[in-house]
Structures are given as structure tokens and as C-alpha cells.
Amino acid sequence: MKGPILKSSIPGLVEFPARFNKIPTGEGWVEGRRGVDGAEGLWRVNDGLYDLTNFVETHPGGSEWLTITKGTDITELFESHHLTDKAEKLLPKFYIRDAVKPRAVPLTFDKNGFYKKLKARSLDALKNVDFHRPSLKSNLLADSLAITTLLLCVITAITQSRLALIIAGTNLAFTTISAHNYFHMRDNFRMYYWDISMMSSREWRITHAMSHHMYPNTIWDYEISSFEPILQYLPSIAAPIARNTAWLYSPVIYFIGFYTQAVRRYAEVFFVRQTFQFRDAVPFIIPSLMFFATGDLPITFKYWMLIIGVGSFVFHAIGLNGAHHHPDIFHDGDNARKDRDWGLLEMDTVRDRNVIDNSHFLTLTQYGHHSLHHLMPTIDHAYLRLCLPALEDTCREFGIDTTRFTPWELIKGQFRQLRRVEPRTNCR
Questions:
Q1: Given strand 43-45, what is the order of strands in its sheet?
Q2: Contact call for residues 349 and 329 (beta carbons, < 8 A)
Q3: How far apart are CA 180 and CA 193, in angstroms?
Q4: Does position 2 have pLDDT exceeding 80, yes or no?
Q5: What is the pLDDT of residue 1?
Q6: Cα separation values, 5 from 19, 35, 48, 220, 408, Å
Q7: What integer is the mean pLDDT of 49-71?
Q8: Given Cys at both, which of 121, 160, 247, 344 links 390, Cβ 3.0 to 4.6 Å?
Q9: Angle, helices 285-294/297-320, rounded to nearest 10 degrees
Q10: DSSP structure string for 105-162
């Protein structure tokens, strides 16, 4: 246990004991959901229980989304992952009965609320593109990054150059982040680009898409709890030693992140799920190519591990400093707004950045257009800019500030947030 059960400052969001699992994993997070969601072994949407068993194999987004979430409340996922009303019209066919327990999550999707209005306006903004599939622009960029990464890794092994090593590791991080655009979508081969980092695209569909995206900066956010007690982002936790020294050891955490996730990944593959999937072989493409080029196993292993370390450092430096952590951004423990609209929580827990959002390359490789991405995670990053007028209009209607931060403000703010313990009223 990492400490006592933590209460949320969002009224109605229940305590989540699974956040204190000794070894945090995606599977553990899902099991935690099953314990509090009242889905009774089915799929829950709002207060209804549905049996989607016969729909799993024909689900347009792929079976994995449904097999993982069985026995949980999928309301937030259902609303944010279906832009049109087709799924809403289909759902009643699978209705079984109403749930007995009230929802563990107080967030709402009222038809006149922020999110539903934004959703309708965004759908109109996207009417001239096939938003159910990624853009050619993003595909070409992601493919180019993946191929370049493989080539750079081989060059590093052959030349043993430090410069090549740094460039290869940086490119690995960019490729991994670009793949994040794809694992949010229906099953596709580009989502496996994520796995060359040694992290699991399956695990991140849980910890990132299902946890962090749906409940950012709350006690239900895996990306908050998994760093505890080393990095403390919630102001309601004292942790004076960590708060005063995290700036010193953060770079080490950034560097070892891919390694620690690889260990957990293969421990789960072999000892928990006991199922080896195609994606679990993907991380070994890089060392296989390096060994084929050099024929030297020690050199291959050494430079593969170093590339993974550099990639991990760049990945975490971008991710942890990119959008969510700043004293002026809501974190659980702060005073929450009274309106429980899910879209408003998303807006309060993220800030967009100048410069990054002006370039598609930076958007795809550094989590750009992050507010819109959180609100509509399945939409390709190249199409999100089409929804900017809809977001601005809806924010104006609801009195939401859309001021952007600079990347430097967020970097400084992340370290300031690690030290903050006083609650604030952080609503845009």
C-alpha cells in the first residue's frame, strides 16, 4: 500500500482502492473498476447494463476494447469514442436491465452541456473528411518516423557513434508518440509502432486511453498514481521529501521508464495472461536488425539498451511536461467546479501550447492539440485543427478561457506542481 485510501475533491467520485496496488498495472486498474462500477459482469453505460458478448467480434473498433472493459462502466469511453449517434441507436438491442448501484463517477453528458454541444459542432466541422480513419498525412509521417528509427538504430550499431545513438533514441521517442495517435483508434498496424519502445500498446490502451483520458489528474488517473510516491502531482498528498527532491531525480525516472515498463510487460505476458501476442514480439525487431547488420551480440545489446534509455528520457520529458501539470491546472485535491460535465473536467485538466499546435509534425510527435485530443481521442491529429472553431465557440458560450501556455511555461509549471500542496480553485 502507498498510503491511506484517498478521497477525491470531486463530489461523487468514489474512492479507488486499486490505485494503491503494490505493483500498478493496467489489469489491476481494470479489476479495480470491476470492484466499484456495479456493472455486474456486463458492460455499463449510464444506469443501464448491456450484454455485448455477441457483438465483441464484430465491433468496428476491434474486439480488444470490449474484452478488456467487460464488467466495467464504459460511459465515458462510449460517449467520447463515438462521434455519431450510430452506437447510441444500436445499444438498446443489448440492454439487459438497470444497474442496482449508482454510478461511481459523477460526470455527466447532458444534451445541453459543454461536451454534447462541442461534439455536435465538431461533427459538422468534420463532415468533409473520413474521420473514422487516419489521414494520409499522418500515416506518411508515422511510417517515415518508424522506418527512420530502424535505420538509425542499425547505423548506431555499426558506427557505435554517440551522435547516432542520441538521434536514434530521439527518433524512437517521436515514433512512439506518433503511434499514440493510432492506439486510440480502431485496430490498425500502426498502433504497434508503439511497441518498439518496449512499452505495450495493449497496456497503454488501458492506462492511457481508458484511465488517464477519461479521468485526467484525478485519483482514478493511472498516470498520476503509477508515479507515486516518487513523483507526487496531487496537492492533497504531503510527501515533503519527494516534493522537495523530485527535481533532482526526475531525469533518472525519465531514463528508466521504458525499462521498468518492459519488465512489467513481460512479467504479465508470461505469468499473468500467459498469452504471447504479435505485439509482444515487436520490441525485438530493432535488436534483430542491429544483430543482422553487425553479427555482434554484445554490441547489439549494449546499443539497443542505450537507445531505449535515450528514447525513454525524451518520451517522458515530453509527456510529463507537455499538457497536464502546472499549478494553474486542476489536480484532484483542488476545488472542483460545480458543473460535472465530463468535457469541462477535460478542459480544466489540460492546456494547449503555442508553437507545438502550429506544426503537424510537432502535433503528432509531442501531443499537440491536446484539449481536443482529450475530448475526441479517436480523431486523427491532422483533423483536430478542423474542430478548433467548434471548440472556441463552445468555450465562449460556457465562459471557458482558451489561453495557451508556452512549452517553457509548462516545463517550469510541472516542477512547480510537484511542490504544490495548497488546494486552489483551478477552473478555466
A1: 43-45, 48-50, 95-98
A2: yes
A3: 9
A4: no
A5: 38
A6: 9, 15, 28, 12, 35
A7: 98
A8: 121
A9: 140
A10: ---B--TTSHHHHHHHHHHHHTTTS-TTS--HHHHHHHHHHHHHHHHHHHHHHHH--H
Q: How confident is the model at residue 237 (pLDDT cuts 50, 70, 90)?
A: confident
| Pairing mode of beta strands 43-45, 95-98 | unpaired
Unique residue bearing C-alpha cell 510527501: 239
Amino acid sitting at position 69: T
Element (H, E) at 355: none
How far, in Å, CA of 160 to CA of 85, rounded?
54
Cβ-Cβ contacts under 8 Å for 151 (sequence gap 6 or more): none
Flag whether pLDDT at 245 surpasses 80.
Answer: yes
Which is it for the CA torsion 273, 258, 139, 79, positive or negative?
A: positive
End-to-end CA distance of the chain: 34
C-alpha to C-alpha distance for 399 and 114, rounded to whole angstroms: 10
* pLDDT tens digits for range 17-26: 888 888 889 9
Calpha distance 65→52 (Å, rounded):
11
Q: What is the pLDDT of residue 131?
A: 96
- Beta strands 48-50 and 43-45 are antiparallel
364: helix, strand or coil: helix
pLDDT tens digits, one per residue of 98-139: 999 999 999 999 999 999 999 999 999 999 999 999 999 999
Three-state SS letters, 80-117 = HCCCCCHHHHHHHHHEEEECCCCCCCCCECCCCCHHHH
Mean pLDDT of the chain: 96
CA–CA separation, 191 and 255 (whole Å): 23
The rounded distance, in Å, linking the Cα atoms of 55 and 294 is: 48
**What confidence score (pLDDT) does residue 272 get?**
85
Check if the beta carbon of residue 83 is closer than 8 Å to that of residue 376.
yes
Q: Which three cell numbers stand for residue 376?
A: 475526441
Q: Could you give the CA distance from residue 119 to residue 247 in angstroms, rounded to a whole number?
A: 39
d(CA 167, CA 156): 9
